[in-house]
Amino acid sequence: MPDAHALIADAVAAVRGTDVRDAERKLDRLVVGTGAPDGTAVVDAALLDRLAGALARLWPRGWQPVDVARMVTRRLGARPGRLVRDALAAQRRGQAGDVPPWWDEQLDGLAARVWWDDDAGWLARWAAREGEDRITALRDAVEVLALLDGLPPIAMLRPPPGGGGPTVARRATSGRSGSPMLDRVRALLAKAESTTFPAEAEALTGKAQELIARHSLDRAMVEATAERPDLPGGMRLSTDAPYAGAKALLVQEVAAANRCESVWNDDLGFATVLGFAGDLEAVELLYTSLLVQATAAMLRGRTERKRGSSRRTKAYDESFLHAFALRIGERLRAATEEANRQAAEATGPERLLPVLAARSDAVRERMETLFPGVTRARLTIRDADGWHSGTSAADRASLSAGTPPARPLPGRS
């Protein structure tokens, strides 16, 4: 009788190949199982074991649970994304040694938990929960395995469980933060997302950036005198289609306004942001909110276009979002520079400026270490109407715009 692991290996290899009929034949063999009375249960347990093993091999290659869940959902769909969450829970169950708190925070955020009693019955129960048959469940599991086995190494932002090295903590951004200032920022951004008045949204977002900048300066001064100063960390933000380049540009603009660096990997659908913990949290908060605001403004802008316009919607949308990102970036940087000026007056530039310079140098060094081969890409503006509308949406106080510039954007390493 065939071995369960051999059957799975054959199916994964066939799915990764180009022969569709061969892949279906290998999946059919998995449906039959090993031929023993409990052959299908043995296959199901072996599948979960293989999934957990594939995940464990990704952690030393830079991947984190949220990255894997996002990638599986992006490439294969929502249902395989839910399947890999179960695999993440199974892999966590078998992890030995110390596991950093941020790791379990990610799993909690994904709702990855062991809800089944027996690994041999897991796949059948998962299929029933999904309302699918066994063939579909097996296909999902094998496709997830094939994807996990083919993922490339990415930058190691934080040591995985058992990886050793310094751990850079970053507070989870869901719910209340424990910081009254950041809770005020969340409240301001929530109002900015809900208002239908662009000028009000811009004012609220500008106020949020002002508070963030002041908070960042206060933290920088405190950490400069700490016995064990903070170290630059990193996070990844999704830049999935549509308009992935525009989303990456928005990440870059928000990151630059908050003393962070960003690198976009178009193939994998995310931008990596490097910076200090408080600044990273600010970037994630602002990017998430501004993406909502930009999308809403873009949809409103479509309705304002002249009837009978021959311009394509895609070109308009991309140009709109590019212009929105660039103008918002200018406004955010202006708020940060004003906060810097006020802080320098209060504390003395001889105290503040060396601290900021040292932190910028540390972030840049971290970027050069993780992304030594980074290149730059250019985003092209193809619709002047979209450009003007996006600029206006980002800053109603300045309605004139010249020829849209070609904007360099850090690309993948």
Biggest β-sheet: count, sense, barrel? 3 strands, antiparallel
Measured by DSSP, the beta-strand proportion falls in 5-15%
What is the general shape?
globular
Read across the widest sheet, the strand sequence of neighbours is 1-3-2
Which regions contain 5 or more consecutive residues with pLDDT less than 50?
Answer: 166-177, 396-407
> Structural class, from helix and strand content?
mainly alpha
Put simply, the count of helices is: 15
Average the pLDDT over all residues and give the rounded result.
Answer: 85
- Beta strands, count: 5
Number of domains: 2
Distance between the termini: 47 Å
Question: What is the chain-wise order of helices and strands?
Answer: HHHHHHHHHHEHEEHHHEHE
Q: Helical residue percent?
A: 55-70%
Radius of gyration: 24 Å
Pfam families: DUF2786 (PF10979), DUF7168 (PF23771)
InterPro entries: DUF2786, DUF7168
Region (Disordered): 157-179, 386-413
Domain DUF2786: 181-219
What does this structure look like?
Helices cover 63% and strands 6% of the residues. It has 413 residues and is mainly alpha-helical. 40% of the residues are buried. Helix 3 (39-58) crosses helix 5 (78-93), helix 4 crosses helix 8 (134-150) and helix 5 packs across helix 8 (134-150).
